[in-house]
Design goal:
The complex is a heterodimer of chains A (about 950) and B (about 425). With about 950 residues, chain A is α+β, with helices and mostly antiparallel strands. Chain A has 38 helices and 13 strands. Chain A is flat. Chain B has eight helices and 25 strands. The chains are: A alpha+beta (about 950), B alpha+beta (about 425). Chain A: InterPro entries: AP_beta, AP_complex_bsu_1_2_4, ARM-like, ARM-type_fold, Armadillo, B-adaptin_app_sub_C, Clathrin/coatomer_adapt-like_N, Clathrin_a/b/g-adaptin_app_Ig.
Chain lengths: ~950, ~425
C-alpha cells in the first residue's frame, strides 16, 4: 500500500480526470479516485466541484469507500446544501442496516453534516438509534444528540431528545452512560440556568458505579461531571470522595487530575478535624508527584495545576520540594513552571537547598529562565528572613559575573530586599553603583535610581549619578522618568545646598517639557510642596514606607476558587477564567467552591471569607499588595504597572512617593479637604468593574435606593425600645408596638400585641407588602392562645429576605397587614438598614482592595458623626457587633483610619473608610460602594456606635 | 471538546486534517503553521492560544500533531489523547513518519472517525480497534451477525482492551520489571536525593479471558499478612518488603479493589503493555558509588581522580557502564589513565568519558586524569558540574520482587501451572549524579 502517491498529483486538469475516474465502472478505480479527492482535500485544495460525482459513489456496500465518501460529505455538505439532500436517503437506509457498525456510522456522520434540511430527516433515525439494541449504536447516538443540539437547539428540545438522553444515564452499558454524561454536560453548559443535569444522590450513585467500569475517557467525562455536583452535606461529600480516590492510581493523568478536582472541591465541605480529611490530604500528594514523571506536555499541565493547588492548600505538597528541582533536560516551559512552584514552597526548613539550586539555575543558558531564577533568589530573601544574608551574597556573586541581564535582574530584586530590610545591606550599594552604566532596561534603571535617591545621603556622588541620567530625560521610559523625579527631590531634601539647581532642572523638565500627565502632575505636586512648605515636603517625601509583602503573584482568591473548579482544563493552564478565552455563552458560568465546613478553618491558608466575628484583629501593616499601597499607587503609577503580570518592583516606584508621601499629606488636612483622599482612592474609569459580590439584581435595586431617606432607628447588637406602630384607636382595640432585631443571623420582628378592646382576639395573621429588600415573614405569627382584654403578648416573628421586591419610599419603609378575628389592620413602620447587614460581610483584603479601586467617584459620600468618645478599637468592636467589619487599620498622624466592609442581604457591598481623631472625637465616614444606600446607612451609624 | 486534529510534517505541510466542530475553520490549520511551526523562537509552551483558539501539540520525530479547540476543554485529556493517538498509529504501521502517514492516510482518517466522535475520545485500545479496522480496509461487511455484535460489545464493553476468542497453543507470559534509579550525591558521599521510578511491563500470550492476579513484596501487603502470622519464611536473606510511594495502573486493573484490598487483579490485554508504574524513595540499593577527588594544581592544572565501587552481589554483572567527568571550558589537554575500560576526553562535550563494558559486584575501579588549562582572565569560577553515570544492572534497585502472577481461566482447560512465566529485572541509571 503506497497511498502517498495520492499526494503528489499536482497537474492541471486534474479535476476533470478525477471526475471521469469517479464515474468509472470499475470499483477499484472509483475507490482510487475518492482517495485522491480526499488527499487533495487534506492539503487544502478545493474539490467541492466534484460533489455530485462523489455522492454518487455513496451507494456501495464497500464500507471503506463509504467512509471516504462520508468524510468528503462532512467537509463539503455545507457548501452544497441542496446536493447534500441527495445523501439523505442513503443515511436513512443505513440507519436500518443489520450491521450495527453501519447503523452507528450513518448516525454519526449524519450529525456531522451541518445542513438544516438534513437535520429534519435526522430526527427519526436518531430516535430509533437512541433505543437501539446495540450499545455501540446507542453510545454513538448519545453524542449525536449533542451534535444536533449544536446545530439546532430548539429542535432537540422539541423532539424530546433531552429526556431520552437523561434516560441513557441509567443504561446498562458504561460507555453509553459516559457518552450520555458528556453530551448532557455540554448541552447544559449552553443553558446555564436549566436543571438539565439534574444531579441527585441516585444519579450520582449510578455515575459512580459506571466510573469503575468505563474506558479511561469515559471516566474523565464522569469525573468532570461529578465535579459540578454540590453534595448535600459533609457525609455525602465524604462518601463520594471515598469512591473517587481509587482513580488517583489510574495510569491516565487526565483521570488523575479530574479526580483531584473532585476531591479538592468536595474537601471544602469536610470538617477539618475529621480524620478522613487528614487522610485525604495525605492521599493527594503522591499522585501529584507522580504526574511529574509523565511526558513533558502533561507535566506542564500538571505543574500549572499544582501551582493552583499549592496556593489553595499549601500543606499538601510542603514536604515535596525536591521533586520540583529542575532537571537539565526539562523543556523550558517545564523549567519555568517548576521554578514558580519552588518559590511558593520555599520555607525556612528547605531554604538552603532551594538557594543552592537557584544559584545553579542562574548560570544556565536560557535568558528567561535565568532571569526568573535571579528574581526567585530575591523572593527567597524576602520570604525567609534567615536566608536574606545568603541571598544577598549570592546576588552579589551573580553581579560579579557581569552578565548583563543577570546584573539588571539582580539590581531589581536587591531594591526589594532594601525595602524589606532597611538599613541592613546598604554596604553593597557601592558594588551596585559600579554597574550603573550597563543598565539598559527601564525596570533596572528605575530600581537603581530609586536606590540612589533613597540612600542619597550615603552616596557621595549621588548628585552626579542622578545628573547623568537627567541628560537623556526625554528618552527614558515613564517609569524611569517618574523615578528620577522622585529621587532628585529626595536628594534635594537630604542635601539641599548642593542640589538646588538639579531639582529645578528636573521639575521644569517634568512640568514644562513633558506630555505625560502623570509626570506633570507629580512634578507640580512636588513643586508646590517644596515652594509652600519644605518641612511638610520632607515629611511627605521622606516618610516611612510601608513594608512589602512576602508573597507576590498570588492569584486573587475568588479567581483561585474558580480555577480550582476547573482543574485539568485549559482555564487552569492559562490561569484565566473560561470567559476570558471562550467565545459565546459557553463557559461563562462562574463555578464556585462549595461552602466551607465550619470548624477550625481559621488556620487555613490565605483565603476568602474564613473569618467570623471573633477573627484575629485586622492586620496593621499595609504591605505592598495592600490597601494603601494599591489605593494610592493605582492612578499615579506609570501605566506599565497595570500590565497583567504585575511586577512587584514596578509598583514600588510609585509607592515610595505615594505610599509614604501623599497619605500623610492627606492626613494633614483631613478637616479641610478630605475629598482629595477620596479622589485619589477612586478608580480611574478605565478599570474594569469586576466586583464579584454585586449581582445584576443589585444594580437594578441600587437605583431604587437613590430616593431613600432614613430613620434613625437604633439597632445592632442591642435592641431598641419598642415604639408604637399601630394605635388601639385605629385598630378596634388592638395596639401593636414593636422593633426589629438581628439575632444570630436571623432578622426578627419583635411585636407586642395588646388587646385594649372588650372582647377576646384570636386568629392572628400577618402579611407584608412588597418592600425594598424583600422582607417577608419566615413563618406564621405564633399567637397560640386567644388574647384576652387588657392582656399583652410578646411575639418574635422571624423574617426572611426572599420575598418580592419593590421600591419603597422611604427605602426602609415596611407596610404590614395584621389580621385577627375582628378585622384586617394596616400600618407601616421603618426598619434600620443595619438589620440587613449580614454576618459574612467581611470582605477579603485583596478583594476589598480591588473593589475599593473600582469605586466610581460619584458613588462616594462622606459625613461626620460628632460627639462620640470612643477609640478606634472600641468602635471597631461595636461596629462588628452590627456586622460592620474592619478589614484593615492604620494610624496616620494620630488619626486612626479604619477600612470597613458591610454586606447587605441582597449581596450589595458597602465599603467605608473611617477616620477617628483621638484628640478630637470626630468620626468621619467616607466612600461608599453604593451611593444609593449611603444616606440610609449614614444616619444609622451613630446609634450603632454609641 | 477537541474541535479538530491536524498532522503536519516538519515543513508545516498538512498531512491529515480532520475537523470535528463547526467553530474550527480552515484558517486554524494555517494559524498553527505560521505561529508555531514556522516561529523563529523555540517552543515556549505546548499550549498556544492564537486568536481565541487553543492549540495543543506534541511532536514525534519531525511530525507535529496538533489538537485544536475553542472551548475550555480538559487539557490533560487532550494530551493523553494525542499520546494515545501516537500509540495507536505506531501499533498499526510502525514509526510515525511522513512516509508512513502518507501511506496510511485513509486508515488514519478511519481511526480518527472511530476514536474521536464530535471531539470526544472513544475507545482507543488497539486490541479492540484491530477487530474491525485493518490496513486492508474495514472488516465487517461479510461477517456474521454474531461476529458483528461481538465487535460492538467489545468496543463498548467493560473489557474494551481485549477481544474474545484468543487462542494460543502455548500459554506464556513475560514480566519485565524495569527500573530507573536516580541519585544526587554530595562530594562527601551523602545522598541528597534518590528515587526509583519503575515500570512493570507485561507481554501476555494467553488464551481466552484469563483473570490474573499480580503480587509483589509491597510493604503494606506483607505487613498485613505478617499480622495474620502465617506467611514469610524466616531466614530468607535481604529485604522482605519495600515501601511504595505511589503507583499507577493500566486501565485493566481494578482500582477499587486495589484501594480496598491492595490486590492487583485484572484481565490483561493481549500482547505487550505496561501493567503499572511506581515510585519508591526508601531503602534504595545504589548500584554504584562514585568517589571524586579534584585538586587544583596552580592556575593551569587540575588533577582528577574518580573511584567507582560496585555495590551488589559479586555474582551479578553490571553492563554498559559509562562515567562522564566534566572538564572546564578552558581545558587545553587531558591525560587519562584508567585501570579498566576505555577513557577518552571529548572536547566537544567538555567531558572525559570513561566506558566499561562489564563489571561484577563488590569491585572497584579507578581513573585518574591530569587536565591542563589555558590561563584565562575570566573571573567566573568553573561551576564544577556533577559527575554523571550510566549503567544497567540485572536486579531491581528498589528491591521490588515479583511474588506471584496467578492466571485463572475457568472456561478453558488450562490452569495456572500450565502457563509458562518469565520474570526479568533490569535496573538502569536515570539521572545518577555525584557532585565534585
Amino acid at each position: 500500500m503506497t497511498d502517498s502517491k495520492y499526494f503528489t498529483t499536482t497537474k492541471k486538469g486534474e479535476i476533470f480526470e478525477l471526475k471521469a475516474e469517479l464515474n468509472s465502472d470499475k470499483k477499484e478505480k472509483k475507490k482510487e479516485a475518492v482517495k485522491k479527492v480526499i488527499a487533495s482535500m487534506t492539503v487544502g485544495k478545493d474539490v467541492s466541484a466534484l460533489f455530485p460525482d462523489v455522492v454518487n459513489c455513496m451507494q456501495t456496500d464497500n464500507l471503506e469507500l463509504k467512509k471516504l465518501v462520508y468524510l468528503y460529505l462532512m467537509n463539503y455538505a455545507k457548501s452544497q446544501p441542496d446536493m447534500a439532500i441527495m445523501a439523505v436517503n442513503t443515511f436513512v437506509k443505513d440507519c436500518e442496516d443489520l450491521n450495527p457498525l453501519i447503523r452507528a456510522l450513518a448516525v454519526r456522520t449524519m450529525g456531522c453534516i451541518r445542513v438544516d434540511k438534513i437535520t429534519e430527516y435526522l430526527c427519526e433515525p436518531l430516535r430509533k438509534c437512541l433505543k437501539d439494541e446495540d450499545p455501540y449504536v446507542r453510545k454513538t447516538a448519545a453524542v449525536c444528540v449533542a451534535k444536533l443540539h449544536d446545530i439546532n437547539a430548539q429542535l432537540v428540545e422539541d423532539q424530546g431528545f433531552l429526556d431520552t438522553l437523561k434516560d441513557l444515564i441509567s443504561d446498562s452499558n458504561p460507555m453509553v452512560v459516559a457518552n450520555a454524561v458528556a453530551a448532557l454536560s455540554e448541552i447544559a453548559e449552553s443553558h446555564p440556568n436549566s436543571n438539565l443535569l439534574d444531579l441527585n444522590p441516585q444519579t450520582i450513585n449510578k455515575l459512580l458505579t459506571a466510573l469503575n467500569e468505563c474506558t479511561e475517557w469515559g471516566q474523565i467525562f464522569i469525573l468532570d461531571c461529578l465535579a459540578s455536583y454540590l453534595p448535600r452535606d459533609d457525609r455525602e461529600s465524604q462518601s463520594i470522595c471515598e469512591r473517587v480516590t481509587p482513580r488517583l492510581s489510574h495510569a491516565n493523568s487526565a483521570v488523575v487530575l479530574s479526580a483531584v478536582k473532585v476531591l479538592m472541591k468536595f474537601m471544602e465541605m469536610l470538617p477539618k478535624d475529621l480524620d478522613y480529611y487528614g487522610t485525604l490530604l495525605k492521599k493527594l500528594a503522591p499522585p501529584l508527584v507522580t504526574l511529574l514523571s509523565a511526558e513533558p506536555e502533561l507535566q506542564y499541565v500538571a505543574l500549572r495545576n499544582i501551582n493552583l493547588i499549592v496556593q489553595k492548600r499549601p500543606e499538601i505538597l510542603k514536604h515535596e520540594m525536591k521533586v520540583f528541582f529542575v532537571k537539565y533536560n526539562d523543556p523550558i516551559y517545564v523549567k519555568l513552571e517548576k521554578l514558580d512552584i519552588m518559590i511558593r514552597l520555599a520555607s525556612q526548613a528547605n531554604i538552603a537547598q532551594v538557594l543552592a539550586e537557584l544559584k545553579e539555575y542562574a548560570t544556565e543558558v536560557d535568558v528567561d529562565f535565568v532571569r526568573k531564577a535571579v528574581r526567585a533568589i530575591g523572593r527567597c530573601a524576602i520570604k525567609v528572613e534567615q536566608s536574606a544574608e545568603r541571598c544577598v551574597s549570592t546576588l552579589l556573586d551573580l553581579i560579579q559575573t557581569k552578565v548583563n541581564y543577570v546584573v539588571q535582574e539582580a539590581i531589581v530584586v536587591i531594591k526589594d530586599i532594601f525595602r524589606k530590610y532597611p538599613n541592613k545591606y546598604e554596604s553593597v550599594i557601592a558594588t551596585l553603583c559600579e554597574n550603573l552604566d550597563s543598565l539598559d532596561e527601564p525596570e533596572a534603571r528605575a530600581a537603581m535610581i530609586w536606590i540612589v535617591g533613597e540612600y542619597a545621603e550615603r552616596i557621595d556622588n549621588a548628585d552626579e549619578l542622578l545628573e547623568s541620567f537627567l541628560e537623556g530625560f526625554h528618552d527614558e521610559s515613564t517609569q524611569v522618568q517618574l523615578q528620577l523625579l522622585t529621587a532628585i527631590v529626595k536628594l534635594f531634601l537630604k542635601k539641599p545646598t548642593e542640589t538646588q539647581e538639579l531639582v529645578q532642572q528636573v521639575l521644569s523638565l517634568a512640568t514644562q517639557d513633558s506630555d505625560n500627565p502623570d509626570l506633570r502632575d507629580r512634578g507640580y505636586i512636588y513643586w508646590r510642596l517644596l515652594s509652600t512648605d519644605p518641612v511638610a515636603a520632607k515629611e511627605v517625601v521622606l516618610a516611612e514606607k510601608p513594608l512589602i509583602s512576602e508573597e507576590t503573584d498570588l492569584i486573587e482568591p475568588t479567581l483561585l476558587e474558580e480555577l480550582i473548579c476547573h482543574i485539568g482544563t485549559l482555564a487552569s493552564v492559562y490561569h484565566k477564567p473560561p470567559s476570558a478565552f471562550v467565545e459565546g455563552s459557553r463557559g461563562v458560568q462562574h463555578k464556585r467552591l462549595p461552602p466551607r465546613a465550619g470548624s477550625g478553618e481559621s488556620t487555613e491558608s490565605p483565603d476568602v471569607g474564613q473569618s467570623g466575628p471573633s477573627e484575629a484583629p485586622p492586620a496593621v501593616i499595609p504591605s505592598q499588595g495592600d490597601l494603601l499601597g494599591d489605593l494610592l499607587n493605582l492612578d499615579l503609577a506609570p501605566p506599565t504597572a497595570t500590565v497583567p503580570s504585575v511586577q512587584p518592583s514596578m509598583q514600588m516606584g510609585a509607592m515610595d512617593l505615594l505610599g509614604g508621601g501623599l497619605d500623610s499629606l492627606l492626613g494633614g488636612d483631613i478637616g479641610g479637604s478630605p475629598s482629595m483622599g477620596a479622589g485619589l482612592g477612586a478608580a480611574p474609569a478605565a478599570m474594569p468593574a469586576s466586583l464579584g459580590g454585586a449581582p445584576a439584581v443589585g444594580g437594578g435595586l441600587g437605583d431604587l435606593f437613590d430616593l431613600g431617606g432614613g430613620v434613625g432607628m437604633p439597632t445592632g447588637s442591642y435592641v431598641a425600645p419598642k415604639t408604637v406602630w399601630l394605635l388601639a384607636m385605629k385598630a378596634k382595640g388592638l395596639e401593636i408596638s414593636g422593633t426589629f432585631a438581628r439575632r444570630g443571623g436571623i432578622i426578627q420582628m419583635d411585636l407586642s400585641l395588646t388587646n385594649k378592646a372588650m372582647s377576646v382576639m384570636t386568629d392572628f395573621a400577618i402579611q407584608f407588602n412588597r418592600n425594598s429588600f424583600g422582607l417577608a415573614p419566615a413563618g406564621p405569627l405564633q399567637v397560640l392562645t386567644p388574647l384576652s382584654p387588657n392582656q399583652t403578648i410578646d411575639v418574635s416573628l422571624p423574617l426572611s429576605t426572599s420575598g418580592p421586591v419593590m421600591k419603597m419610599e422611604p427605602l426602609n419603609n415596611l407596610q404590614v397587614a395584621v389580621k385577627n378575628n375582628i378585622d384586617v389592620f394596616y400600618f407601616s413602620c421603618q426598619y434600620p438598614l443595619s438589620l440587613l447587614f449580614v454576618e459574612d460581610g467581611k470582605m477579603d483584603r485583596q478583594v476589598f482592595l480591588a473593589t475599593w479601586k473600582d469605586i466610581p467617584n460619584d458613588n462616594e459620600a462622606q459625613f461626620q458623626i460628632k460627639d462620640i468618645h470612643l477609640n478606634s478599637d472600641v468602635a471597631s468592636n461595636k461596629l462588628q457587633g452590627s456586622n460592620i467589619f474592619t478589614i484593615a487599620k492604620r494610624t496616620v498622624e494620630g488619626q486612626d483610619m479604619l477600612y470597613q466592609s458591610v454586606k447587605l442581604t441582597n449581596g450589595i457591598w458597602v465599603l467605608a473608610e473611617m477616620r477617628i481623631q483621638t484628640g478630637n472625637p470626630n468620626y468621619t465616614w467616607m466612600c461608599w460602594r453604593r451611593p444609593h444606600v449611603r444616606e440610609c446607612v449614614s444616619q444609622n451609624d451613630s446609634p450603632v456606635i454609641s | 471538546m477537541i474541535g479538530g486534529l491536524f498532522i503536519y510534517n516538519h515543513k508545516g505541510e498538512v498531512l491529515i486534517s480532520r475537523v470535528y466542530r463547526d467553530d474550527i475553520g480552515r484558517n486554524a490549520v494555517d494559524a498553527f503553521r505560521v505561529n508555531v511551526i514556522h516561529a523563529r523562537q523555540q517552543v515556549r509552551s505546548p499550549v498556544t492560544n492564537i486568536a481565541r483558539t487553543s492549540f495543543f501539540h506534541v511532536k514525534r520525530s519531525n511530525i507535529w500533531l496538533a489538537a485544536v479547540t475553542k472551548q475550555n476543554v480538559n487539557a490533560a485529556m487532550v494530551f493523553e489523547f494525542l499520546y494515545k493517538m501516537c500509540d495507536v498509529m505506531t501499533a498499526y504501521f510502525g514509526k510515525i513518519s511522513e512516509e508512513n502517514i502518507k501511506n496510511n492516510f485513509v486508515l488514519i482518517y478511519e481511526l480518527l472517525d472511530e476514536i474521536l466522535d464530535f471531539g470526544y475520545p472513544q475507545n482507543s485500545e488497539t486490541g479492540a480497534l484491530k477487530t474491525f479496522i485493518t490496513q486492508q480496509g474495514i472488516k465487517g461487511q461479510h461477517q456474521t451477525k454474531e461476529e458483528q455484535s461481538q465487535i460492538t460489545s467489545q468496543v463498548t464493553g467493560q473489557i474494551g482492551w481485549r477481544r474474545e476468542g484468543i487462542k494460543y497453543r502455548r500459554n506464556e507470559l513475560f514480566l519485565d520489571v524495569l527500573e530507573s534509579v536516580n541519585l544526587l550525591m554530595s562530594p562527601q558521599g551523602q545522598v541528597l536525593s534518590a528515587h526509583v521510578s519503575g515500570r512493570v511491563v507485561m507481554k501476555s500470550y494467553l488464551s481466552g479471558m484469563p483473570e490474573c492476579k499480580f503480587g509483589m513484596n509491597d510493604k503494606i501487603v506483607i505487613d498485613k499478612q505478617g499480622k495474620g502470622g502465617t506467611t514469610d519464611e524466616p531466614g530468607k536473606s535481604g529485604k522482605q518488603s519495600i515501601a511504595i510511594d505511589d503507583c499507577t495502573f493500566h486501565q485493566c486493573v481494578r482500582l477499587s479493589k486495589f484501594d480496598s484490598e491492595r490486590s492487583i487483579s485484572f484481565i490483561p490485554p493481549d500482547g505487550e503493555y505496561e501493567l503499572m508504574r511506581y515510585r519508591t524513595t526508601k531503602d534504595i540499593i545504589l548500584p554504584f558509588r562514585v568517589i571524586p577527588l579534584v585538586r587544583e594544581v596552580g592556575r593551569t592544572k587540575l588533577e582528577v581522580k574518580v573511584v567507582i565501587k560496585s555495590n551488589f552481589k559479586p555474582s551479578l554483572l553490571a553492563q554498559k557502564i559509562e562515567v562522564r567527568i566534566p572538564t572546564p571550558l578552558n581545558t587545553s589537554g587531558v591525560q587519562v589513565i584508567c585501570m579498566k575500560g576505555k577513557a577518552k576526553y571529548k572536547a566537544s562535550e567538555n567531558a572525559i568519558v570513561w566506558k566499561i563494558k562489564r563489571m561484577a559486584g563488590m569491585k572497584e575501579s579507578q581513573i585518574s586524569a591530569e587536565i591542563e588549562l589555558l590561563p584565562t582572565n575570566d573571573k567566573k569560577k568553573w561551576a564544577r558540574p556533577p559527575i554523571s553515570m550510566n549503567f544497567e544492572v540485572p536486579f531491581a534497585p528498589s528491591g521490588l520482587k515479583v511474588r506471584y502472577l496467578k492466571v485463572f481461566e475457568s472456561k478453558l482447560n488450562y490452569s495456572d501451572h500450565d502457563v509458562i512465566k518469565w520474570v526479568r529485572y533490569i535496573g538502569r541509571s536515570g539521572i545518577y549524579e555525584t557532585r565534585c
